[in-house]
Amino acid sequence: MEERLKIRVYYEDTDFSGRVYHASYLRFMERARTEWLRARGFENLHLAHHAALSFVVREVKLEYLAAAVMDDLLSVTARVSRVRGALLDFEQEVFRERELLCRGVIGIVTLRGTKPVRPPRELSGASVAPLETPV
């Protein structure tokens, strides 16, 4: 299942030229993954304190296609595309209306304490069809 989060671009997200700074896309994607978890009944703080479970970024591959600018309203998607042991691969995209601005695959490792573990069953079975362009 896919999660879609709306994010407004603020001054703090931009570089000196008024375009979104490249690392800001990673923050936007992090928020979408957090909302993806929340939509499935998982909250990071609860998982960390009660189950000693955390999610850590292991690898990032991003492709920048066009620049967002201050005041744009973006749509950021997140979905699990593959589960490999303790690793969840999230496919993520950032759109301005129907224009794809950035896409990537973020590999997230599930940890219990410091040990890699398989993610909860409710998350590992969450793979879905390819992302759709927002309406």
Walk me through what this model shows.
Helix content is about 20%, strand content about 40%. It is an alpha+beta fold. The protein has a single domain (about 5-125), classed as Hotdog Thioesterase (Thiol Ester Dehydrase, Chain A). β4 and β5 (about 100-110) form a beta hairpin.
Separation of the first and last Cα atoms: 17 Å
**Cα shape:** elongated
Helix content: 10-25%
Can you tell me the CATH class? Alpha Beta
Order of helices and strands: EHHEEEEEH
Average of the residue pLDDT scores: 88
CATH superfamily: Hotdog Thioesterase
Gyration radius (Cα, Å) is 15 Å
Strand content: 35-45%
Q: Care to count the β-strands?
A: 6
Total individual domains: 1
**What's the number of helices?**
3
What's the architecture in CATH terms?
A: Roll
Features:
alpha+beta; Thiol Ester Dehydrase, Chain A; 6-stranded antiparallel β-sheet; 3 helices; 21% helix; disordered C terminus
Task: Walk me through the topology.
Blueprint lengths: L2 E6 L13 H18 L4 H7 L2 E12 L8 E12 L2 E10 L2 E14 L2 E2 L4 H4 L11
Antiparallel strand pairs: 1-3, 2-5, 3-4, 4-5, 5-6
Quickly describe the structure.
This protein has 135 residues and is an alpha+beta fold.
